[in-house]
Amino acid sequence: MSIDSAVVPRVTSALKTQFVADALAMPVHWYYNPMDIERAFPGGIQRFEAAPEFHPSSIMSLHSTRSGGRRSGHNSEAEPQIVGDVILKGRARFWNVPNVHYHHGMGAGENTLNALCSRVLMRCLAEGNGQYDSQAFLSAYIGFMTADPPAHPDTYAESYHRGFFANYAKGLPAERCAMVTHDTPSIGGLATIAALVFAERLRGMDLPDIQAHCRDHLALTHPDESLMRVCDRYVKLLFGLLEGPDDEGVKALLAEAGKGTGGLDVAGLVKRNLPDHQVVGRMYSPACYISDSWPVVLYLAYKYRNDPWLALRVNTNLGGDNVHRSIVLGTLLGLTSEEVATNWFDQLVDHKAISGEITALISAATAPR
After folding, report:
1. What are the angstrom distances between the C-alpha of 1 and each of 198, 200, 204, 242?
2. CATH number given to 7-353
3. What is the CA 274 to chain-centroid distance, rounded?
4. Which are the contacts of 191, defined by CB distance < 8 A and separation ≥ 6?
5. pLDDT tens track for 195-237
6. Where are the domains of the chain?
7. What pTM was estimated for this model as a whole?
8. Could you read off the pLDDT of 105-160 as tens digits, one per residue?
9. Is 59 helix (H, G, I), strand (E, B) or coil?
């Protein structure tokens, strides 16, 4: 399968933009009252900012440090301490304190844990000549997450990370460590998908095979069929946007991606010209659940497709699980515009390392065979 030479710049822009989008939303991640964002950052987030000391919506103290999900009577003292002993070493002390920021201590332009897991996969793909190997990824993921001292600056790990390592600590094989919790079908599961799609597309693979591999990859951490179905649509959307459609084509692809998601008519929703806070907060929850977060991403991508930097700022200032929505939204917007990557990528703390990893991934995937 031949690959248009314009695909490589689109891949580069999309990957760079996802890291920009992640860092932009980080300081107000899981702020569930947009007015709290306004109070902390008058006028809303407009650029990279550090994580504030105080987080008005934080319920990190309610989350289990021994497993996925929330604390409960089932998380007994007999279970191993995952946060602090297995992952996030040295950071358990922040978990039992009210209103501690999920990304405590992170500075302006730093990336969150799920975005860094995308980098783990990018490095694996580059080392594997662009070919996906689940065992190589699992080995790299486990090494990254259990490093001492931690190999990343984050304080929080989503439920899926904690559940995975709770099972890993029990001795389960890595490929069987995924834990199902109430929030397994969450948009955070899509954070690493784009790198895999791009590598395999650059290798010349067709859509059904890429979708199958992405399902296999997702099953390692997020075994949920409803999320798998959205992942299929996300892969198809990335595949279509890589071809460089015109604006009408972009709109058609975004509209098609909404079908099957509760009958979402994204074009009709945008045409209603409702305030964004009414769409995200009333019609759809700003939380992580894929049933709401996927329609929100499509709505924002469609409405603000011609102004990607505005799209990312709007998404950020709507709060909720804005970081993981941002990663997906930024990837989509980066495929159609280099504006965000051109203007903001070099302000990321790790921009040089990330740029090198993107180059290595593309070089490996496009190397002659």
Report:
1. 14, 11, 5, 14
2. 1.10.4080.10
3. 26
4. 114, 115, 117, 118, 324, 327, 328
5. 999 999 999 999 999 999 999 999 999 999 999 999 999 999 9
6. 7-353
7. 0.96
8. 999 999 999 999 999 999 999 999 999 999 999 999 999 999 999 999 999 999 99
9. coil
